[in-house]
Amino acid sequence: MFKKKKTYVILIIIIAIVGSVFYFKNKKPKVEYTTQDVKTGTLAQTVSVTGVLASPNQADLSFKISGRLEKMYVDIGDPVVKGQKIATIDGGTLNSQLNQAKAELRSQKQTLASMKRGGYNVEKERAQREQVRAAEAAVSQILDQIRETTIYAPIDGFIIKKSSEVGEIIAANSAAGNTPVVTIARNDDLEIRTNVPESDIVKVTLGQNADVTLDALSSADVFNAKVSEIEPASTVIQDVVYYKVKLKFDSLDPRFKNGMSTDADIKTAERSNVVFAPMRAVKTENGQKYVEVLKDEKNGVTEKVNVTTGMGGDDGMVEIKSGLKGGEKVVTLTKNI
């Protein structure tokens, strides 16, 4: 009797195990769907870049001859006017060279005068005149060098950079790697200079508007600018190809300063009254694009809907040209639970 009872228990356990395996094997997993709404409105496409404020009217001032910096009449931030004296270098032996050249010129002129009084022939007199002209050229050359010991402001503006101090030896600007002594720029015509990667440059065209913010100002201060110049030649920066682009402000703010950092969102395209959905909701099967629309959230019922897409927009959105009307919930992620 005990053995029969034990056998029944074992059979019941085996049946329970087999039943459980069969149940869980055939049980459909529950699916959790993450969705986003399909919207109707304005879809924008922008290229976001960083840049810097700079003046197109900017002058780098250097000396044409080498020497010790003797005087610096300006400092960073100082306003200057065109023609104002900026700095001088020690002329060294130029003054003594000038005195010698002038003495030589006087001597050559005296010789010419003596030849005229003495009745020398024409050929000798012509040769002496050449000596006088050569002496005059030597004086003129030294005077030019003396004038080059002082630099003057070629434009009105502000001193934005100063790379040398009094007492330093300044190399002539023809020297390789020479740094300007000072840089002058204007603040009334600032523009944005930026680099656009080659992946985005095809979207950027002249005249496009941009929303601009500056690191130095509040994020609430948004300024409008337009693309004013696109350089046709590329520039390689850290193995990445860029194109230099300039933007002009519609109006300048008095708080703008040369060298300030900027963030610009260039509006490369915009579509109004269009249907758009998350790009990650769009899938492709056999060359046909489709989305899954959640029809019954409670029971997890979805429907595959074929769509035609258009322009890609910001925030991962894409234009839906056909297949959806707006208001649908499209599946962006599925998870078995």
Describe the structure.
With 337 residues, the protein is an alpha+beta fold. It folds into 3 domains: 31-43 and 272-336, conserved putative lor/sdh protein from methanococcus maripaludis s2 fold, CATH 2.40.420; 48-56 and 188-270, Elongation Factor Tu (Ef-tu), domain 3 (Beta Barrel); 58-184, RNA polymerase II/Efflux pump adaptor protein, barrel-sandwich hybrid domain (OB fold (Dihydrolipoamide Acetyltransferase, E2P)), CATH 2.40.50.100. It has helices spanning 2-26, 94-118, 122-147, 198-201, and strands spanning 31-37, 39-54, 58-61, 67-72, 79-80, 85-89, 150-152, 157-162, 169-170, 182-185, 191-197, 209-214, 223-237, 240-249, 261-278, 283-285, 288-296, 301-306, 308-312, 317-322, 329-336. Helix 2 packs antiparallel against helix 3.
Topology:
Elements lengths: L1 H25 L4 E7 L1 E16 L3 E4 L5 E6 L6 E2 L4 E5 L4 H25 L3 H26 L2 E3 L4 E6 L6 E2 L11 E4 L5 E7 H4 L7 E6 L8 E15 L2 E10 L11 E18 L4 E3 L2 E9 L4 E6 L1 E5 L4 E6 L6 E8 L1
Antiparallel strand pairs: 1-21, 2-11, 2-15, 3-10, 4-6, 4-9, 5-8, 6-7, 8-10, 11-14, 12-13, 12-15, 13-14, 15-20, 16-17, 17-18, 19-20
Please name the defining characteristics of this protein.
24% helix; 3 domains; conserved putative lor/sdh protein from methanococcus maripaludis s2 fold; 21 strands; 6-stranded antiparallel β-barrel; Elongation Factor Tu (Ef-tu), domain 3; 4 helices; 337 residues; rod-shaped; 4-stranded antiparallel sheet; alpha+beta
